Amino acid sequence: MNVLVNGVGNIGTTLLAVLAAERDVLGIERIFALKNTPTTWQKRELDVLQRLDIEVCTRVPIDDYKPLETIAGEVHYAFDCTTTGRGILNKRLYDEWPNLIGASAQGSEKGFGKPFASGSLPQHVDLGRYAQIASCNTHALACVLQAVSGNRLQEMICADFVFVRRSEDVGAKGKMVGSNVVARHLDSHIGTHHAIDVIELLGQDAAGKITSSDVTTPSQTMHAVRFSVWLSSNVTVADLQHRIASMPYAATT
């Protein structure tokens, strides 16, 4: 299989490193990296990818990189890691690629495809041709709900979440804020997109039971979340510790 990572920023470079390291396990023959704005990077940084046997391509001819149109017919799967809103637009491009089996985009690209979160859906669920990988905070919300409820969401009476978010990735500065910023609720009953997205992800067992809010801070450290979950049955501390330990992507300190 040949794969393309569209977008070589923080998410794209991390994903490329994983794919390069695990290419044999994943059965990957060729890895393409599409740099949409190559002039903003120094050539030596793209050369690091090429030393990992990753083939860099661009939308416009530049240096020694492959033009996108010359490899489009060879791509079997595409990971869209572009900035917010670009994934939805790029879907039209993927529709035209003759050998594309599927593509996935990040959480901001609502409507790109069926939502998916690691550990929250069966490992081999059929997502169809296009998948939307849930955001980091949607992953966290789903993980907390499933851990606390022991994967029995039907026993959940209600749950409330407040996310405390960083404003920008380390090394970037485009979205920094000068003070705490409270997000506007998208739904008067559900709140911010986090609860809306997890209800779409987990289905009817979560519908009508979850609310979320978020505040963006002038920080570049990781997100945190304050949560309260009410269940129909009593849960001891030992029960909760066992439930968290049984979750493959959860940990405690």
Describe this structure in words.
This protein has 253 residues and is α/β, with parallel strands linked by helices. The chain contains eight helices and twelve strands. The strands form two sheets. An eight-stranded parallel beta sheet has the order 4-3-2-1-5-6-8-7, sandwiched between helices. Strand 2, helix 3 (43-51) and strand 3 form a beta-alpha-beta unit. The protein is globular. The model has no long low-confidence stretch (mean pLDDT 88).
How are the elements arranged and paired?
Blueprint: E1 2-6, H1 10-21, H2 23-26, E2 30-34, H3 43-51, E3 54-58, E4 66-67, H4 68-71, E5 77-80, H5 86-95, E6 102-105, E7 114-116, E8 130-133, H6 136-149, E9 156-166, E10 181-182, H7 193-202, E11 210-217, E12 224-231, H8 237-245
Parallel strand pairs: 1-2, 1-5, 2-3, 3-4, 5-6, 6-8, 7-8, 9-11
Antiparallel strand pairs: 9-12, 10-11
Helix pairs in contact: 6-7, 6-8
Features:
single chain, 253 residues, alpha/beta, 8-stranded parallel sheet, 4-stranded mixed sheet, 8 helices, 12 strands, 24% strand, globular
Total number of helices: 8
- What would the average pLDDT be, to the nearest integer? 88
- What kind of sheet is the major sheet? 8 strands, parallel
Q: Radius of gyration from the CA trace?
A: 20 Å
Helical fraction equals 25-40%
Strand arrangement across the biggest beta sheet: 4-3-2-1-5-6-8-7
How would you describe the shape?
Answer: globular
